[in-house]
Automatic annotation (TrEMBL):
<dbReference type="InterPro" id="IPR036108">
    <property type="entry name" value="4pyrrol_syn_uPrphyn_synt_sf"/>
</dbReference>
<dbReference type="InterPro" id="IPR014777">
    <property type="entry name" value="4pyrrole_Mease_sub1"/>
</dbReference>
<dbReference type="Pfam" id="PF02602">
    <property type="entry name" value="HEM4"/>
</dbReference>
<dbReference type="GO" id="GO:0032259">
    <property type="term" value="P:methylation"/>
</dbReference>
<feature type="domain" description="Tetrapyrrole biosynthesis uroporphyrinogen III synthase">
    <location>
        <begin position="266"/>
        <end position="494"/>
    </location>
</feature>
<dbReference type="GO" id="GO:0009236">
    <property type="term" value="P:cobalamin biosynthetic process"/>
</dbReference>
<dbReference type="InterPro" id="IPR035996">
    <property type="entry name" value="4pyrrol_Methylase_sf"/>
</dbReference>
<keyword id="KW-0169">Cobalamin biosynthesis</keyword>
<keyword id="KW-0949">S-adenosyl-L-methionine</keyword>
<dbReference type="GO" id="GO:0019354">
    <property type="term" value="P:siroheme biosynthetic process"/>
</dbReference>
<feature type="domain" description="Tetrapyrrole methylase">
    <location>
        <begin position="3"/>
        <end position="215"/>
    </location>
</feature>
<keyword id="KW-0808">Transferase</keyword>
<comment type="similarity">
    <text>Belongs to the precorrin methyltransferase family.</text>
</comment>
<comment type="pathway">
    <text>Porphyrin-containing compound metabolism; siroheme biosynthesis; precorrin-2 from uroporphyrinogen III: step 1/1.</text>
</comment>
<keyword id="KW-0627">Porphyrin biosynthesis</keyword>
<protein>
    <recommendedName>
        <fullName>uroporphyrinogen-III C-methyltransferase</fullName>
        <ecNumber>2.1.1.107</ecNumber>
    </recommendedName>
</protein>
<dbReference type="InterPro" id="IPR050161">
    <property type="entry name" value="Siro_Cobalamin_biosynth"/>
</dbReference>
């Protein structure tokens, strides 16, 4: 029999999953998850893991609790290790205690991985510390939705109302008029600050601050719904001063990243840090070549090469992979001068012990050629490892300037078979505010997967592209980019987006 792990998945921000929780998702045979557990975490699961959604949105259960218990017990009895993922902390209004009791009764070993509970995290992301010496000496977690089958209430409204505790209500939005009413009827000052935080810690977070007497009407006006945390107490008056998360420039903005999955994370990470809701829609995949004979030959004759020019991170990776394949390493470059196009390519080289001799300040062919000419490239042997199909401007210009240029394909990009349904649905729902294109091939492939006519139906969606070449390709499809950075880099593109939408 295997162990069941009752795991808190935190309030939603992927960074708030604990290290232990991640380790267990990565290793368990079965992952059972809830509505409030961010499903992004499923990407950590083993490819052969069994993934089971047991839902629970308000009262709308995908699987009733007793069947969830039976399911978990059955899987454990089959000898499978189970990661039971719950939103927030499993023992804070998550019925984790009941699941644990069932496991004990069934004689199944279990472990608990506490999680970051929404009642602390959502206020923190909204600028509200649940305790603060100037306001309160305690904090109280309360359910705003008591078990409807219970005969007598477990609430003591008089105690809540008279206490100086910060009151944190879970599952309370629907009952907000009842909650506020009971607190005031039992003597809490109607002017007491109250805050609501919806989808706390996620890119869709929204919060509002009101007072006990006005909060029910205000929340209705602003259409606050579940899942929200309600905070009652003086600490809510700090929200304005301590707000930070909702100040992120792209918070709540849907941005599509079309780069290959292998290289999307740099752009996606910067965008997420700026608050964006990132939709990954990789239009290309980066693949090794079928045959590396040419590359091998070129490596064995590196002695005749004067300059090596790397134009992309993938170029570096695949070239070095082939060096390793034939038992060589960076030392094979000996006295060769190295140029890197773009800071990311330069970093990739530095990671392999190579400090490039030349990194152009701007990533356009003319500048690169001018810089290399200054460094005496005319008449020299130049090797450019890169994608099978790529722009010819750089090799052609270098050749015209008198260099002996050899282009060496070391990888290729292919069109992915992405289903655009999710993106089209998000466009329809107005959830997408911008699309990003980081190369001509992302543009071409994007429009193979989703027609230009479809995109034209959403004129408010901003189109951001990395530089003039990509912009040119966009114009072939009838689009003019709204956003374009000055420096043609990924961080530049993210910064331009932050200002442009
Ligand atoms: N075990 C969870 C709570 C489950 S009860 C925890 O520790 O956080 C479900 C309630 O939690 C929701 O109705 C809502 O009140 C609250 N909640 C969960 N995630 C939330 C989030 N990201 N933002 C705001 N409230 C959240």
């Amino acid at each position: 029999m295997s162990t069941v792990h009752l795991i808190g998945a935190g309030p939603g921000d992927p960074g708030l999953l604990t290290i232990r929780a991640k380790e267990l998702i990565e290793t368990c045979d079965v992952v059972v998850y809830d509505y409030l557990a961010n499903k992004d975490f499923l990407k950590y699961a083993r490819t052969d893991a069994e993934i089971i959604y047991v839902g629970k949105k308000g009262g709308d259960h995908t699987l009733p609790q007793d069947q969830i218990n039976q399911l978990i017990i059955a899987k454990a009895k089959e000898g499978k290790s189970v990661a039971r993922l719950k939103g927030g902390d499993p023992y804070v209004f998550g019925r984790g205690g009941e699941e644990a009791e069932e496991l004990v009764e069934a004689g199944i070993p279990f472990e608990v991985v506490p999680g970051v509970t929404a009642g602390v995290a959502a206020p923190a992301y909204a600028g509200i510390p649940v305790t603060h010496r100037d306001f309160t000496t305690s904090v109280c977690f309360i359910t705003g939705h008591e078990d409807p089958t219970k005969e007598e209430t477990g609430h003591n409204w008089e105690v809540y109302a008279k206490s100086t505790s910060t009151l944190v209500f879970y599952m309370g939005v629907k009952n907000l008029p009842m909650i506020a009413g009971n607190l005031m009827a039992n003597g809490r000052d109607p002017k007491t600050p109250v805050a609501l935080v919806r989808w706390g810690t996620r890119c869709t977070q929204q919060s509002m601050v009101s007072t006990l007497e006005n909060v029910a009407a205000d929340a209705e006006k602003r259409k606050f719904a579940a899942p929200s945390i309600i905070i009652v107490g003086g600490v809510c008056s700090l929200a304005d001063k301590l707000a930070w998360f909702e100040k992120k420039p792209l918070l709540g903005k849907g941005v599509v990243v079309t780069r290959a999955r292998e290289q999307a994370s740099d752009l996606a990470d910067v965008l997420k840090n700026l608050g964006a809701c990132v939709y990954e829609f990789p239009t290309i995949t980066v693949e090794p070549l079928d045959d590396y004979e040419e590359v091998e030959k070129a490596i064995l004759t590196l002695g005749a090469v004067d300059w090596l020019i790397l134009t992309s991170v993938n170029g570096v990776k695949h070239f070095w992979n082939q060096l390793a394949e034939i038992g060589l390493d960076t030392r094979a470059l000996g006295g060769i001068s190295v140029a890197a196009i773009g800071p990311a390519t330069a970093d990739e080289l530095k990671a392999r012990g190579v400090t490039p001799d030349f990194v152009p300040a701007k990533y356009v062919a003319e500048e690169v050629v001018a810089g290399l000419l200054e460094r005496g490239i005319a008449g020299k042997n130049v090797l450019i490892p890169r994608a099978r199909v790529a722009r010819e401007v750089l090799p052609e210009e270098l050749a015209r300037a008198g260099a002996h240029v050899r282009v060496l394909p070391v990888y290729e990009t292919r069109l992915t078979q992405q289903d655009p349904a999710e993106i089209v649905e998000a466009l329809e729902k107005g959830k997408i505010h911008a699309l990003t294109f980081t190369s001509s091939s992302t543009v071409e492939n994007f429009f193979t997967l989703l027609s230009p006519e479809t995109l034209k139906q959403y004129p408010d969606v901003k189109i951001a592209c990395i530089g003039p070449v990509t912009a040119n390709t966009l114009s072939r499809f009838g689009f003019t980019p709204h956003i374009q950075p000055e420096d043609y880099t990924i961080p530049g593109l993210a910064a331009a987006l932050a200002q442009g939408i």
